[in-house]
Write a structure and sequence with these properties.
Helix content: over 70%
Mean pLDDT: 82
Distance between the termini: 51 Å
Number of domains: 1
Low-confidence stretches: none
Structural class: mainly alpha
Shape: globular
Largest sheet: none
Number of helices: 23
Strand content: under 5%
Number of strands: 0
Radius of gyration: 22 Å
């Protein structure tokens, strides 16, 4: 059997394994290793695997991931999501759909600290959904606004998904993190505007709040939420002006977030430090294993000729390059429904990244574009992960159908953001091109 045929069989075997429910990491590693044995033999495969493991695990870039994860876990342990939601509600709760808008803004800030789309959706479902439903908000809009707000976690830095994209494509991690700032803020604004328009068209969806707060109460609400926002801002400005590296930014963020958690919990007891560190190690190990297995699989695709053949086929089509982009969008939306971001990036980037580079797209722009695509897939039926999280955390107050139905206008806002990125690539490229 020719190498190309072996490669195609390997790709089919990978997707069959995923559909059968086999762990993505195991599927990537097993198919990649067996494929390499079939293409180059046992001896060469053994040498190659040892090289991949060493080159990957000794990379300094990997230290960013556990530090960002630790920062997010400290933010969750501290209950800082509650502080952010309370502050956003006091400042913006009086607007039409104010609670939903406050949820989006609070989730954007908390997601930037945690970097976890699922974690953000879980916490804000517990915090915001009961309040919205108890005040007569439409349950479809309420649940959907939380599910989509969770996607902001991977757009606004620090973002572990951006780091994973940088490692898998050998792109500048600092530039990728900075590139997500403007698109993330614009996307957050688009989601708020979407909620505002929904409520203007259907005032019964969100009864106006009669509560008013003095300026002193609003400022006091920032006592713990404000420092966290300042930490995030410091990380962004520090990376932009070259004050510190992404790894140093992660260390600073984790240290300051731990301090805020100690203040919030009035001591270390509520922090569950050993449990937090253990969870950080477990999650980091899982991400590292997925990346290592993905690199093994990408070597198999390269040596078998599948990556080059598919790339040459797509770039050789006599069509506008944006037609190829639409094909790639469809691929990410379909598979984004079925798996989380690290696994999806690990499987697809060995093929899609070279194609986009041959078509002349900027790697940093593509990083922002594909991360947004992955997160839109996370809320798209039939298997949108965030939707299941919201429904499962709602104590049966909303049905899964409610979440999916309510997401339609918000997913359209996501597509509008993708179109903006295509029309105005400088939204993602301006800050990286001017950073020090």
């Amino acid at each position: 059997m020719a190498s190309l045929e072996i490669g195609l069989v390997g790709v089919l075997a990978l997707f069959a394994a995923i559909l059968l429910g086999i762990n993505v990491m195991v599927a990537l590693g097993a198919v990649g290793a067996l494929g390499l044995v079939s293409v180059v033999g046992v001896t060469a495969t053994t040498t190659m695997l040892s090289t991949v493991f060493f080159e990957t695990t000794h990379s300094f870039h990997f230290s960013v991931i556990p530090l960002f994860l630790l920062m997010g876990l400290f933010a969750m342990r501290a209950g800082l999501g509650e502080d952010l939601f309370d502050a956003a509600n006091k400042w913006f709760g009086g607007l039409p759909g104010g609670l939903a808008i406050s949820t989006t803004l609070g989730a954007a800030a908390f997601g930037a600290a945690s970097g976890s789309s699922i974690g953000t959706a879980t916490i804000f479902t517990k915090l915001a959904l009961p309040q919205m439903l108890d005040r007569g908000y439409n349950k479809r809009m309420s649940a959907a606004s939380i599910a989509i707000a969770g996607t902001l976690a991977v757009m606004i830095p620090p973002s572990s998904v951006m780091v994973i994209f940088g490692i898998l494509t050998d792109s500048s991690i600092g530039a990728l993190l900075i590139a997500g700032v403007i698109p993330g803020l614009i996307f957050a604004a688009l989601l708020c505007v979407t909620t505002y328009i929904i409520v203007l068209r259907n005032p019964s969806y969100a009864p106006r709040s009669t509560e008013t707060y003095t300026l002193r109460e609003k400022l006091y609400s920032l006592r713990l939420a404000g420092p966290l926002v300042l930490v995030i801002g410091s990380i962004i400005f520090g990376l932009y002006f070259g004050v510190f590296t992404p790894t140093e930014a992660g260390g600073m963020g984790a240290a300051v977030t731990m301090l805020l958690a100690v203040i919030r919990q009035r001591g270390f007891k509520g922090l569950h430090l050993m449990e937090t560190l253990r969870e950080t190690v477990k999650t980091s190990a899982m991400i590292f294993a997925i990346i290592i297995c993905a690199l093994v699989f990408s070597r198999f695709l390269a040596l078998s000729g599948v990556a080059n053949t598919l790339g040459d086929f797509l770039t050789g089509l006599n069509v506008n390059r944006w037609i190829i982009v639409l094909i790639i969008v469809a691929i990410y939306l379909v598979f984004g429904m079925m798996m989380d971001a690290p696994a999806l990036l690990a499987i697809t980037l060995p093929i899609t990244y070279p194609v986009m580079m041959k078509l002349g797209f900027d790697p940093i722009w593509f990083g922002v574009f594909v991360v947004l695509l992955v997160e839109i897939g996370a809320v798209t039926p039939p298997v949108g992960v965030n939707c299941f999280v919201v429904q499962a955390t709602s104590n049966n107050r909303v049905e899964l159908e409610d979440v999916f139905m309510g997401l339609v206008p918000y997913v359209l806002a996501g597509f509008a953001m993708l179109i903006l990125l295509c029309l105005f690539p400088q939204l993602a490229l301006f800050l990286p091109q001017t950073m020090h």
